[in-house]
Design goal:
The chain is mostly helical. 77% of the residues lie in helices and 0% in strands. Among the domains are: 30 residues, no CATH class; 128 residues, no CATH class. The chain is flat, with a radius of gyration of 26 Å. The two termini are 23 Å apart. Pfam families: DUF2157.
Length: 321
């Protein structure tokens, strides 16, 4: 229903007067329209198109341009982006820094992307790092962590955490954890549990010690999903399931507690879903053959309970209607 129709209905029911309706209508028609998200989307798209276009031009003209020239251009652009970001940045602070120059945030993302392109080009064309692939991954990871904290950029922090996971042979993106990680490899499984738990711990310390506390959500989300999924798989498939069970239950309890404190539905879902899976498996596994029969009733009853709980999540989180 449009604004004029709503105002007309309210006026006819004598909820508001004609004068009030006129004031509201005047305000609605003359108020400024925010272009914040539109501009952000355009800037992100511009960075994507620029890097993609540059890659296509380089690929199609590699014989004409020459490798050295391409490397020099990418290096120059990377250095210029870093200089621009540093020049327009505010002094470092452990609290959140709100830079009025929003363009520098996108320049920093471009810098990180260009640095990866430069490093990848050097490795592909000249084997700059030889077979030391770990070194090739950890260098940009350190730079991204530095950039994230120095320039207060959560995008750079996500790239740094992703690089750290890649250094250990892991994929940390929430939608790719199961599809692209070989959790059949015991070393990777343990690494995922340790890294994810460590990231959650860093996020908690960030909040408790007031050290870039707004970064905690990124640490919790990426680390919590990685550690929870790895511990669940370990509990389902490995002999040391009791350790994975303890890790999974502790993480679920932490996120449920954190959800109530931060009034966050995301953390509540993480805690409830992962906790439900590990507890359900713990209940049904000892039943053996009877699990198939009992499991039907258990799933029905427990699912109904979870649905009821999630439908009333605002009460649990302390959110007023």
């Amino acid at each position: 229903m449009s604004t004029p129709a709503i105002l007309k209905a309210l006026t006819e029911k004598e909820i508001i007067s004609e004068e009030q309706a006129s004031i509201i209508s005047s305000y609605e028609t003359s108020k400024p329209f925010s272009l914040h998200w539109e501009l952000r989307s355009i800037l992100y798209l511009g960075i994507l198109l620029f890097t993609s276009g540059a890659g296509i031009i380089i690929y199609e003209n590699i014989d004409t341009i020459g490798h050295q020239v391409i490397i020099a251009i990418i290096a120059f652009l990377t250095a210029f982006c870093f200089y621009y970001t540093f020049k327009h940045s505010l002094p470092f602070s452990w609290s959140e820094v709100r830079n009025p120059n929003k363009f520098s945030d996108y320049v920093l993302l471009l810098e990180c992307t260009l640095f990866l392109a430069l490093e990848g080009y050097l490795q592909f064309q000249y084997k700059f790092f030889g077979s030391r692939y770990g070194l090739a991954i950890i260098i940009p990871t350190i730079i991204f962590f530095f950039s994230a904290y120095r320039f207060d950029h959560r995008g750079a922090l996500s790239m740094a955490i992703t690089g750290l996971a890649s250094w250990l042979g892991l994929t940390i993106a929430p939608m790719s954890i199961l599809a692209e990680n070989d959790f059949g490899n015991e070393r990777l499984l343990i690494s995922a549990m340790i890294l994810g738990s460590l990231l959650v711990l860093i996020g908690w310390l960030s909040e408790e010690k007031e050290l870039k506390r707004h970064f905690s959500f990124t640490y919790f989300l990426l680390g919590g999903n990685l550690a929870s999924i790895a511990s669940l798989i370990g509990f389902f498939t490995k002999d040391y399931g009791i350790i994975c069970f303890i890790v999974s239950i502790c993480l679920s309890g932490f996120f449920i507690f954190r959800a109530r404190k931060a009034q966050s539905l995301v953390f509540l879902l993480m805690g409830v879903v992962y906790g439900y899976l590990v507890l359900s498996y713990s209940v049904l596994r000892p039943l053996g053959d009877a699990a198939a029969i009992v499991g039907v009733y258990y799933v029905l009853l427990s699912s109904a309970g979870i649905i009821y709980f999630l439908l009333n999540f605002k009460k649990f989180l302390g959110i007023k209607k």
